[in-house]
């Protein structure tokens, strides 16, 4: 690998996350069978180009992914370049685990973070009649009839619930995420301890 270290999830985080997930999943199902962008003469090769929308970044020039390719090779992924195409092989479980470690460091989108926080604090807010599980599932499109309704729930949840899930100084109906109850008004909003 070159003297400069590859920075994961910097330029194309969604692509890198999806591609690593694909390589990991492929290895779990197909073992060390190679994955190629174009068809190859190898009988055990699997194509990831079957859905052109899946990895549109792979359609860019080879120079664009030179650093990514080197980073994958440094992790143990075998990269071949037959006929100006790429073929990737995750040779064993230890390499797959390295890829899983890199993937676990990927930045989470706010909905993933919301799921974790709701799991942790939902019971606290149920004390005051706030059903965060139901509200989050609506934000994710469950129980809504139109895309527009789900989009409205997403915006509402992010604006009205995420602050209380992320910060103990934010109260909803007189309670914060740690279960501390506020005895005087106002009962909702950002209310740090030292505020009047």
Task: Kindly describe this structure.
There is one protein chain. The chain has 196 residues and is α+β, with helices and mostly antiparallel strands. It has 2 domains: 13-104, no CATH class; 110-190, no CATH class. Helix content is 42%, strand content 7%. The chain contains 7 helices and 6 strands, in the order αββαββαααααββ. It has helices at 13-30, 66-74, 93-104, 110-126, 132-139, 147-160, 162-166, and strands spanning 35-36, 46-47, 78-80, 87-89, 170-171, 189-190. Strand 3 (78-80) and strand 4 form a beta hairpin. Helix 5 crosses helix 6. The longest helix has 18 residues, at 13-30. 18% of the residues are buried. The model is unreliable at 40-45 and 49-53 (pLDDT under 50).
Write the layout of secondary structure elements.
Blueprint: H1 13-30, E1 35-36, E2 46-47, H2 66-74, E3 78-80, E4 87-89, H3 93-104, H4 110-126, H5 132-139, H6 147-160, H7 162-166, E5 170-171, E6 189-190
Parallel strand pairs: 1-2
Antiparallel strand pairs: 1-4, 3-4, 5-6
> Total number of helical segments?
7
Stretches where pLDDT falls below 50 for ≥5 residues? 40-45, 49-53
Shape: elongated
Largest sheet: 4 strands, mixed
* Beta-strand residue percentage: 5-15%
Total beta-strand segments:
6
Radius of gyration: 23 Å
Describe this protein with a few key phrases.
2 domains, single chain, alpha+beta, elongated, two-stranded antiparallel sheet, 7% strand, 196 residues, 7 helices, four-stranded mixed sheet
